[in-house]
Amino acid sequence: MYFLGVDIGSLTVKVVLLGGDGKILASGVNRAGYRGQETAGALAGTILADQGIPSTEIAYTVATGYGRVTFVGTGGTCAPLTPVMASEEISEISCQARGVYHLFPGARTIIDIGGQDSKAIRLAASGRVVDFAMNDKCAAGTGRFLEVMAQALEVDIQDLGDLSLRGTNKVNISSTCTVFAESETISHLARGADRADIAAGLHEAIASRILGMASRVGLEPQVVLTGGVAMNRGVAKALEAKCGQAIVIPPHPQITGALGAALLARERWERTVRGLRHGD
After folding, report:
1. N or C: which end of the chain has fewer CB within 10 A?
2. Around Cβ 244, how many Cβ atoms within 10 Å?
3. CA distance to 10, 135, 154, 181, 216, per residue, from 116 (Å)
4. Domain 105-249 has CATH 3.30.420.40
5. Which of 75, 68, 93, 100 is nearest to 4 (CA)?
6. pLDDT digits (tens, 9 = 90+) for 135-171
């Protein structure tokens, strides 16, 4: 038997395929586009085809993320490439917690920074979610903030983090609002400030915003950083400098939610099988 975790975010979709033993067999990440559920279906179909696994051998699928509801049951609108639909949808908070705890049993705080939202999740020693805080109403503290600033600095978004690490005289960015921070950035450039110094200031600003949110749930080590923004080394360094703690980053920080969804899919299926065996 095989299990799928599908994370349909606002900007990207992530799919993780687990074997019956709970080990990751394959995973994939793709841009969501305008039809994230169809992109997720196509990505799942490609992964299954590459592994030589027919969709009929998928015992259970859990969907999570922004577009999870549209991927469940007969309401799903997956691409024609695959008939895969989720058996159940589970919140991204629960899936992130499950995926991170699987990788790091010592994790007590998760900071997840995606393209359009960010969240802080506090875990108990058992991996249970104790509390969480979320920013999904403002671009500040998200990947979108960094995209706008990269455009203002005229650098590729993939290079922004490394640019910030080269800053030697950090420029203060007083606003964490994306619109005002962009205006400040342009003003600093007009006055001849070094781009690396401005980038360093921008990363400190986003770290301040993120840690302000995380303080609402408590920042207890081990702190794990996930999401696409976790691949920006400048953000991780800025967070460490501001909070005075080491930040742990998974090898593939974008797929932790999908991994948690796949693990929960396996657990749900096993629970169902046990129930049938005992006549529940």
Report:
1. C
2. 7
3. 7, 9, 21, 17, 20
4. yes
5. 68
6. 877 777 888 999 999 999 999 999 999 999 999 999 9
